[in-house]
Amino acid sequence: MKPKYYVTTAIDYVNAAPHIGHALEKIAADIFARYYRLKGHDVFFLTGVDEHGSKVEKAAKAKGLEPQAFCDEMAAKFQDAWKQLNLSYNRFIRTTDEKHCSAVQELFQIMEKKGDIYKNTYKGLYCEGCEDFVRERDLDEDGNCPNHKQPPIMCLEENYFFKLTKYKDKLRKWLTDNPDVLIPDGRRKEVLNQLDDEEFGDFSVTRARSSLSWGIPVPNSPDQVIYVWIDALSNYLTGVGYGDNKEQFEKFWPADLHLIGKDITKFHAIYWPAMLMAADLPLPKRISVHGFLTVEGQKISKSLGNVIDPKQLVERFGADAVRFYLFAAAPFDKDGDFSHEDFLNKVNSELANNLGNLLNRTLTLVGRNCDGKVPDGQFENNLREESNEIHAVVEKHMRQCEFAKAIEAIFALVDQANKYMNDEKPWTLFKEGNAAQGKTVLYTVLDILRRTAIEIYPFTPALAQTIWYQLGFDDKLDELKAEGAWDLIPAGQAVRNEGPIFKRIEEVTA
Ligand code: ME8
User: Fold this and answer.
1) 292-328, pLDDT tens digit by residue?
2) pLDDT by residue (tens digit) across 424-478?
3) Pairwise CA distance, residues 277 & 170, whole Å
4) Which domains can be identified in the chain, with CATH numbers?
């Protein structure tokens, strides 16, 4: 039986349109989904949108729409953007899906029956931007939420609370015994410190309907709605069949990887596993926390007018360029910057020059000297080791979500192949009658290009497919079986030189 792989992304609030920060995380999940499919796993890739809560309710009101109509409009925008970016998700979940809502209620009742949910009065502050309860001492000098630069609202409500305190020791043990479960390690240490904070205890899991009506009703308590984070986190269960498709759920749960941004670590590394413990469900195998993207050095913000619409970017430069740049430019776990100039430089130098030109000139030489067919040469001994090892190197980096390092390793091999061509000068070898060595050079470079297509496929799927096709293969990389992927390129295969695979980008403007 095929091994399974279940990867998820955070589900985005639909109060505003998607930006490239959202895109970064969704593409990361797509990279893993494609990578594991290629390895022969049965993959489930879940993404979607978070539609309930005060933020969304307010945004709908501001547009003069009913919340559901507003969410329908916004969810379509997200799906459209993800389609443009060539995301191969298995399911796009919306938290207003009926089955999701009923499963969340069921989960709430399970936790309640267990005695982990109880009624109490909540008196304190709430930041609508964070959709989180905040403490006075966490505010900035103006009394604002430091993330959203807006004052929190004061709540005095009869709510339901979740007994987090009951699970703190278990959570600490889970995070200590499994250092790999939350990466990078600095985030794990942060969470362990948070757990040590005595003030960090039970939290409110409902809101009074009188202050928020846009949410899932608490079963048997019509005056309360379920807190948006309980609702949202449950998507990882309901999205893969909890409460609906038992067989699928049992096959895929627990998640192999949750991809999330740094601002929502607490919810995923504390609240979420505690909820799962309360529901007696297995815990996720790994949570990977990524950094934030800025644009030209500045925080992405509507008021600064620097929100880059991923769809527009793709329309101008193509999905592969965007996908490649976001992961080549900066380490995933650190904050990164989207700079138009850097984008142009990286994409042109690696995709157009380094890789595109290598393929183009190799195929031209094959056309001129080998009848347009892969020659029956030997693979060059000096490059054998690097080429054979590339997959293991990429695999090691992928395991740690080190996308930039994986890309760097792939392009180091392409560099080597370019250097080898320049040093060996196969055009001269053929001219001077040393066809055997000329064929060895071309064969070696063609096979390195074949490997490169496979290795970069998760990052730039369409570009990889074009390389694959021009090398003379007829199958789809999407359907390639891992076992067959590691043979050498077959001699005698007719190549297809159909011109440059990646056009240089000339414009620099934002
Ligand atoms: O937090 N760079 O939704 P969200 C990189 N609905 N990533 C960014 C980013 C940036 N500039 N801005 C946001 C929520 N993100 C909840 C999640 S999951 C059960 C519920 C990331 O729309 C952010 O860190 O505010 C998060 O992972 C995702 O985008 C959605 O953020």
Assistant:
1) 999 999 988 877 778 888 888 899 899 999 999 999 9
2) 999 999 999 999 999 999 999 999 999 999 999 999 999 999 999 999 999 899 8
3) 9
4) 340-484 (1.10.730.10)
Among 82, 231, 264, residue to substitute to test ligand 1 (most atoms within 8 Å of Cβ):
264
Nearest CA residue ID for atom 26, ligand 1: 261
Percent of the chain predicted with pLDDT > 70: 98
Out of 19, 49, 260, mutate this one to test ligand 1's pocket (max ligand atoms within 8 Å of CB): namely 260
pLDDT band at 131 (very low <50, low <70, confident <90, very high): confident
ω before 254 within 30° of 0 (cis)?
yes
Residues 6+ apart with CB under 8 A from 117: 108, 111, 160, 161, 162, 163, 205
Note the pTM of the prediction, 2 decimals: 0.96
Sign of the torsion formed by the C-alpha atoms of 457, 460, 465 and 470: negative
How does DSSP assign 245-277, residue by residue? Answer: -HHHHHHHPSPSEEEEEGGGHHIIIIIHHHHHH
